[in-house]
Specification:
Blueprint lengths: L1 H9 L3 H6 L2 H8 L1 H24 L7 H11 L6 E7 L5 E9 L9 H11 L3 E7 L9 H16 L3 E9 L2 E4 L5
Parallel strand pairs: 3-4
Antiparallel strand pairs: 1-2, 1-3, 4-5
Length: 177
């Protein structure tokens, strides 16, 4: 009970507990309890993945926001994930393609395109987290999004959006859909 009380005092919601960095949780309640929280987070991410795959089509960022928050929202370093979509905007697959530092992630745009072609994807949704908690896309995020969108479009692949996950929010680096 003492562990649960410490977690509820530090985090306002269950989602915040599950999204917290494992080292922070371990500092509060110990390594064993932190490992259990991480396992629960993994199970929930798997369930959300199943839910996302069963949807007919991904039509707006709300369809993926909860999944992204659970998958990369808690990380202490930036991580880049790509959702690969078919022509009906249904999820084919997803992959975390790069992890970086607390304030940046570097990735090869060619790798994203190669992965999309290999999966037969005709659409992409790119997403990364901002551990700072600020969900506003940086000028670099916007520049990279434009570059990747142009390259993808020239190959018949649509970059539907580039989402930034931070502070419990998900924002677009491309504006409205």
């Amino acid at each position: 009970m003492a562990s649960a009380r410490r977690l509820s005092e530090r985090f306002s919601t269950l989602s915040a507990v599950l999204s917290a960095d494992q080292a922070l949780v371990a500092d509060l309640v110990g390594q064993e309890a932190a490992a259990a929280v991480a396992q629960v987070r993994g199970i929930m991410a798997h369930a959300l993945d199943d839910e996302l795959r069963q949807r007919r089509a991904i039509l707006c960022e709300r369809d993926v926001a909860r999944f992204l928050k659970e998958l990369i929202g808690f990380r202490a370093e930036e991580a880049l994930i790509v959702l690969f979509l078919d022509a009906r905007r249904c999820l084919i697959d997803h992959e975390i393609l790069a992890t970086g530092r607390a304030d940046s992630v570097e990735f090869d745009q060619r790798r994203i395109i190669f992965r999309a072609i290999g999966r037969g994807a005709t659409g992409l949704i790119l997403a990364h987290n901002h551990p700072s908690g600020d969900p506003r896309p940086s000028s670099s995020d916007i520049r990279v999004t434009r570059q990747l969108g142009e390259v993808a479009r020239s190959l018949g692949i649509c970059l539907h959006d580039h989402l930034v996950v931070a502070g419990g929010e998900v924002r677009s680096a491309m504006g409205e859909w």
